[in-house]
Task: inverse folding
């Protein structure tokens, strides 16, 4: 049976500020925003346009979870956002105020630049070369 990663939890401080960042700045699609009244939460899912893996925006509900906001991987690049047009997306992100912490560079696997999300997590924006994957 084939398997794929379909949903990844992304710890956030506030649902609405996270939705604004992902939808307005990165151009993601808001897939679902459903209240879960019994838990005082919402089921909020966003996804890159045309992508198959989605992010569950999970509001921190404990001090331990809140401590992880913005540092989900200890300062390493946490997420890899692939694009079919690096120049287009890089320019659009800059125009929308996305902060790039490492400039574009050519690697054996493709063109890549590192940006910071609204909480400080690091992301690669990458246009892979045909058949290549980041190492």
Result:
């Amino acid at each position: 049976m084939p398997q794929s990663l379909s949903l990844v939890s992304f710890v956030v401080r506030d649902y609405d500020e996270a939705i604004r960042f992902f939808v307005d700045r990165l151009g993601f699609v808001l897939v679902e925003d459903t209240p879960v009244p019994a838990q005082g939460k919402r089921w909020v899912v966003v996804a890159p346009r045309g992508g198959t893996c989605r992010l569950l925006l999970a509001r921190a509900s404990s001090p331990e979870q809140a401590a992880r906001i913005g540092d989900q991987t200890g300062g390493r690049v946490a997420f890899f956002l692939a694009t079919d047009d690096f120049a287009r997306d890089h320019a659009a992100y800059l125009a929308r105020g996305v902060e790039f912490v490492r400039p574009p560079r050519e690697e054996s696997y493709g063109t890549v630049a590192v940006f910071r999300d609204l909480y400080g997590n690091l992301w690669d924006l990458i246009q892979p070369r045909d058949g290549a994957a980041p190492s």
Observations:
- The chain has a mean pLDDT of 94.
- The two ends are 26 Å apart (CA to CA).
- The chain has two domains: 1-69, 72-135.
